[in-house]
Amino acid sequence: MVGFVVVSHSQKIAEGTVELAKQMAADVKISAAGGMEDGSIGTDVSRILAGIEAVQTGDGVVVLVDLGSAVMSSEMAIEMLSDDSNVKIVDAPIVEGTIFGAVQASIGASLEAVMDVLAGTKSYKKF
Amino acid sequence: MATKAEVLDFIRIYADKMAEHRQELTDLDQAIGDGDHGINMSRGFKAVMEKLPAVENKDIDEILKTVGMTLVSTVGGASGPLYGTAFMKAGMSTKGKEELSNEDVILAFDEAVGGIQFRGKAVRGEKTILDSLIPAIDAIKASIKEGKTMAEALVEAEKAAWNGVEYTKTIIATKGRASYLGERSIGHQDPGATSMAYAFQAANEVAQKAGK
Q: Is the pTM of this model over 0.90?
């Protein structure tokens, strides 16, 4: 099953996003890589790396990011993997993307299928 | 030329500067960013100072790579991956070296610039670190080409870096959070260019102390 990592500057945003997504897709592996080790605001390459490794089952991992250094730190974490072929950063809204992606993964969608769905979330209309 | 002791000295002096100018960098960032640049850089370099004793007997490449790795997991903001990549790339270019020739120093700086450009997808003139870094390196190259010593070159490099910082006041930010402000970013000095200028100030101080 495809896994997810939520990368936010804020630990609370990352954890809250995981909590929301788990409500709809309890069996999907989603890790929260928010904030720094001491809880302060920021992004930390080693926390992201650990998050990816924690949810990788072999079916691939999608990394969702908030902004700025979340992108750069995630790129660095992916580069540090021995095999980064099935770990992708997606340009999607972090909350909606995590929920939509997790639901897709829970029904057995492949990494490519999840990425396709998430590519569409940028234009998703809330009303 | 730069010895391993000078490289270590540079890291220590730069770490001191990041602690000393913590508030100034944070104030600059508050004006156009998220107001954490000084806090982040001082936190990152404090962590570097804690890691340094464990690697100071290793080769220069190991020392620089350790600085980079520490920064990417402790700085927290964009400057973590940017400065971290710069130190790691510089480290890779000095593999196995106990001492750096002027050519090695220039290569290390070029690799650092390449790393920052790759990571930040930025070019000169976008109100970033690059606006003090690139002019400083150009000044080093020009000075060495004219036959000056590295110590003389670093005097020119520091001047060029601060001129670059001044230049950032005149341009619009198109990268990072400052870009959200658009034209309102004009008139403000870029915090990243400023922290980079302190790196050349630190390097210059080390070179003058060594007198070469």
A: yes
